Amino acid sequence: MDTLKLLHIDASILGANSASRQLSGAVVDRLRKVRPDLQVTYRDLASEPLWHLSGAHLAAAQGVTPESADLQRDVAASRAVLAEFLAADIVVIGAPMYNFTIPSQLKAWIDRIVIAGKTFRYGASGPEGLAGGKRVIIAISRGGLYGPGAPAAALEHLETYLRGILGFIGVKDPEFIVAEGLLLGPEQREKSMQSAFQVAGAL
Fold this sequence. Notes:
Helix content: 25-40%
Distance between the termini: 20 Å
Order of helices and strands: EHEHHEHEEEHEH
Strand content: 15-25%
Number of helices: 6
Radius of gyration: 18 Å
Strand order of the largest sheet: 2-1-3-6-7
Low-confidence stretches: none
């Protein structure tokens, strides 16, 4: 049996208090039990943030050597991030909702993996995803209620964005574990987290 490679990404800025970190950790723990030989790579986008894209990054992608040592390190990190993603059989992402969408730290990571010629390409029929075949599990935490039929559903740009961008690169069936209403009181938080943990434990 070949060794499976898992990439674990966390993006919350709340450290140990983060619901999405607790859930993504539970997912990885469950998968480790199922496959003890799982090879896990972990990247914390809050403690080691990637820079946001700039013109200098685009120039570096075209072969221009970055002038500053800091930018050189970030460009090297970009290559490492892409290599981690391409090598992974399973990707687990802890994704909290910030202001109705993804954290900027997670957006910076996405900008490093959505690369023409690597994870998608343009063909005669339009864009084609090249990253299919990966299992992607996303642990989402939301303070309010944004599910189908909720009054605030139209403001949900976390799951919808991730589903769209992953589909663009070929991941057609990402799995979502959602804990929401976490700021609506301790009882709602406990109920929602326990439900999400149960889903994680059944993977």
